[in-house]
Amino acid sequence: MALPLGTRFGPYEVQSAIGAGGMGEVYRAIDTNLKRAVAIKVLPEALAFDAERLMRFRREAEVLASLNHPNIAAIYGLEDAGGVMALAMEFVEGMDLAERISHGALSIDEALPIAAQIADALAAAHEQGIIHRDLKPANIKLRSDGTVKVLDFGLAKAQEPDSAISQGVTQSPTMMSPAGMTRIGMLLGTAAYMSPEQAKGRPADRRSDVWAFGCVLFEMLTGRRAFGGDEVADTLAEVLKGTPDWTALPAATPRGIRRLVRRCLEKDRKDRLADLGTARLDIKDALGGSADEPLQREPPRSWQRRLLPIGLAMLVTALLAGYGMWTVARSAPTPASPVTRSLLGVHPFGQTTPGAVQDARGANVRPNRTAIALSPNGRIVVFQAASGKGVQLYQRRLEELQVTPIPGTQGADTPFFSPDGASIGFYAAGELRKVPASGGPPSPICTVPSSDAAPGVVGASWGDDDRIVFSTNHRLWSVSAGGGQPQEMTTPADDEYGHRLPHVLPGSDLVLFTVAREVLRWDNAQIAIKSRRTGEQKVLFEDAADGRYVPGYLVFVRKGALMAAPFDVGRREVGGPVTLVEDVMQAANMLRPSADSGAGQFAVAGGALVYATGGVNPQPQSELVWVDRMGSVEPLGFPARDYVFPRLSPDGKRVTFFNSYTGASRRIWMYDTTRRTQPMPLTPPEERASWAIWMDDESIVFSSSIGGPGLNLSTRRVTDSGRSEPVTTGRRALRPASWSAAHKTLLATQDSGGILALDMTGPERREKVVVQEPGAPVGDPAFSPDGRWVAYTSTDSGRDEVYVRPYPGPGQRVIVSTDGGRGPVWRRDGTEFFYAMPDRTGNGLTMMVMSVRTADGQPIGKARELFSGRYLQAGGLQNYDVTANGQRFLMVRTLDPTPEPQTQLVLVQNWFEELKARVPTK
Question: Do both 345 and 453 map to the same domain?
């Protein structure tokens, strides 16, 4: 629940949001009576309906309020405002320990005084019978005066005997789900700091806090977690079975501290240190006295004593010389910081959107959406990358060497930071979500509208007003960062396909965005600016995409080059652009409209620039070949080009295909298989035609731009020079897939999801969705020769598999493939069924065949392999065809080596200095 500013809880008035945790949201508020800042934690609404739990919480709050300790953040009260419960707590200024550790391991001198104060706080709580259960670096604040404050004791509980009801590990904050909790608000430890007994679902006691304390101390000294993993399950397995890397402890770690950490991290709690008061004494011993004193050093040796006066004299001389130089230089202008370039090692850059370019292992190596974000201070790079488990978001802090996965971001793309850098937004599984930059579970912001032609998000930006502007394929939307219903911000004009890639200008109501003029086209896009307050809109640049604002400049991409131009925001005028980087990766996909975002893979913040190299997708080269059932290949014999989607006419005498390059030259070509002449174009360039299938020996139906800025369906006779006739209009992206002469019906795919059947017998072109599986993309539809079955591909099982279902129904779907498959095709005489699956290298296709039961036309039996090769599968439709007798296959053989996975990003620090020098504003 997001609280509006000014909400009152008794004397406390909410001023701003601080963050969110497993048990609710935290706000900064003002105590109107005492004029002091406080922190307000709002409890879940469900808590108000659990009388027993609410009574227990009140009792616990009373006990916690009695804790008067300098290292424990105090609780001031429990307030009720209209049924919303909130805890009023001490507001503690300063960074938390997690943030400090993110900058590197702490020295012994710094870590031990902090650890002593943490141990002191926990020991005091334990004496009162209270255990914390969620101790972690994010719950420990470091004040500037050196005082340590342990937070979230409001999430603690009074100790219960071992006979108390066992609680499951799924009730911990990292895994908390209101729908899955048996007790609303159970407050257990975060996975990486949970004790083995908590991980097993057993009750926690003070020794559970001892374990967490050991994890925190280990992390302070090493800069890494004692128990880690990419997934929660992996982390818990490490907690239960793994062993910390003791060699990671610094060589200077005192022997007593090494022993202390080991005793804290004993898995059997009977062997574990029983009392943190003892830990406090161990730390005091290591410090050589009071916990506030520095470490005692070895007394200087005799040669050191002799050299000490000489060293002091040299120091004084250096100071005097330095002072003289300073007095001379103080009046001179400060030189600009040097511009430095370096390479950041990352995991392989990747994406799983269909149609993405793949490497030899089948991993996608060119993201189709925004894949890089830079924190406002320019110190944290967040990027999307491929791994063995798919893709997710990772982060790389510039002061660290390692790359860290961001938990809970599997399958995510489009990362973006909040203006204060505290949160990272992203898109995943139909939702816009956010996750704390310092660590913690993600939380949903909103469900993304799915009515546009492409599901997903094509750019997002977080404004200073705490509203997020994001785009689907067509429109811009605005939503509160705290959650809510998205509000439509823009609607494309009739001659526009979509608005995408928004960028909110800081401190204003202005939004930059990209105007896509046509589907399957990115190189004629525009950059526009719009006022959210007045609605006024203006085009700033033609032939440009993905504009970002840098004070005084507009930075954007054009055909894979990073450009910048002077930008007067007040007058909304731009100067002449200058090319800054020639080879910036741009997400310009050729084979699938939903992947064609135009996004530049770069980010600018904190004076720094980070980008991936690679330019736009290279124009593919391929050739059309005949392949027999044994795998023998015979090229058709005309020059290699970017061919795709070949289709044989019913009589086998003609072949249609189109060139896939995203540009004005997209058109359908026809080849005569009997005369073997050079291919001839069937459609003019202005129609930008693609995806043609045969209705009969004389007519084709295809996608084109005739009916609007989307992909609409048109028909054309191939034996005359007449005009193409539109079948549909609008800005949907439709692609024809299969024609049934028996039903006079066309199957087509649409980017908004589902497979359409269009009745072509009348002028009204009635249509209905015949296959739609929520959450699972479907494609590759194909009628059986008698029109009684529809075969198609679905990812419902987690990978592509081929299914068939009766047409027009009713009846259940039947799975056909058993080990992955797509692109189903029936033999024209109805006796066999073919489909393709990835070959063993992941860089080609294997053709499979099955028998068909003649009684009902359904594929039966076990599929067997015919041949394999480097053949191209693209665009969500089968990229091959079969002769009527099933003896030869018309395939697209790729000739280009696929690009290598990107494992480095280019970082340019102090880039603003270079920008100002190369693009003067006056």
Answer: yes
CATH number for 20:
3.30.200.20
**In a 3-state reduction of DSSP, which class is residue 724?**
coil
Residue 1 lies in a domain: yes
Q: Is residue 619 part of a domain?
A: no
Q: Which tokens belong to 840?
A: 């063993």
Task: For residue 808, report the phi and psi dihedrals to the nearest 5 degrees.
Answer: -85, 10
Contact at 8 Å (CB) between 174 and 190? yes
| Domain membership flag for residue 131 | yes
Q: What is the pLDDT of residue 596?
A: 62
How many domains does one find in the chain? Answer: 4
Within this chain, do residues 169 and 281 fall inside the same structural domain, yes or no?
yes
CATH assignment at residue 465? 2.120.10.30
Q: Clarify whether 134 is annotated catalytic.
A: yes
Q: Which of 45, 75, 91 is the last residue of a domain?
A: 91
Q: Give the span between the Cα atoms of 405 and 392, in whole angstroms.
A: 7
Q: What is the DSSP letter of 505?
A: P
> Could you tell me the maximum CA-CA distance found in the chain, to the nearest angstrom?
106
Q: What is the DSSP string of 468-496?
A: EEEE-SS-EEEEETT----EE-----TT-
Co-location of 492 and 562 in the same domain: yes
Residue 771 belongs to a domain: yes
The contacts of residue 468 (CB under 8 Å, 6+ apart) are 425, 432, 445, 460, 461, 462, 478, 479, 480, 481
The number of angstroms, rounded, from the C-alpha of 689 to the middle of its chain's C-alpha atoms is 33
Polymer length of the chain = 922
Residue 884 pLDDT = 95
Same domain for 154 and 67: no
Euclidean distance between CA atoms 393 and 370, whole angstroms: 12
Q: Do 604 and 650 have their domain in common? A: no
pLDDT at 185: 27
CATH number, domain with residue 265: 1.10.510.10
> At CB < 8 A and 24+ separation, what contacts does 463-468 make?
463/419, 463/504, 463/506, 464/419, 464/504, 464/506, 464/507, 466/17, 468/425, 468/432
- Closest by alpha carbon to 739, among 686, 799, 699, 779? 699
Same domain, 857 and 912: no
Condensed to tens digits (0 to 9), the pLDDT of residues 32-43 reads 888 788 888 876
CB 513 within 8 A of CB 501: yes
* Class of residue 49 by CB neighbours under 10 A (exposed 0-12, middle 13-18, buried 19+): exposed
Domain end (from 91, 117, 137): 91
600 Cβ neighbours under 8 A, 6+ residues apart:
545, 546, 556, 557, 562, 584, 585, 586, 587, 611
Same domain, 560 and 608: yes
Neighbour tally for 164: CB within 10 Å:
13
Count CB neighbours of 649 within 10 A.
21
Catalytic residue among 96, 120, 134, 642: 134
CB-CB neighbours of 730 under 10 Å:
13
171 in the same domain as 71: no
Counting as low any pLDDT under 50, the low residues of the chain are: 22, 154-155, 158-189, 289-335, 351-364, 452-453, 590-594, 662-664
Whether the CB-CB separation of 867 and 629 falls below 8 Å is answered with yes
Tokens of 733: 């992206």
- Per DSSP, the chain holds a count of helices (H) and strands (E) of 10, 62
Range of the domain at 174: 95-295
The number of beta carbons lying within 10 Å of the beta carbon of residue 260 is 25
CB 269 within 8 A of CB 195: yes
Q: How far is CA 107 from the centre of its chain?
A: 34
* Contact between residue 358 and residue 400 where contact means Cβ atoms under 8 Å apart: no
Residue 253's pLDDT is: 92
pTM assigned to the model? 0.53
* Euclidean distance between the first and the last CA atom of the chain, given in angstroms as a whole number: 48
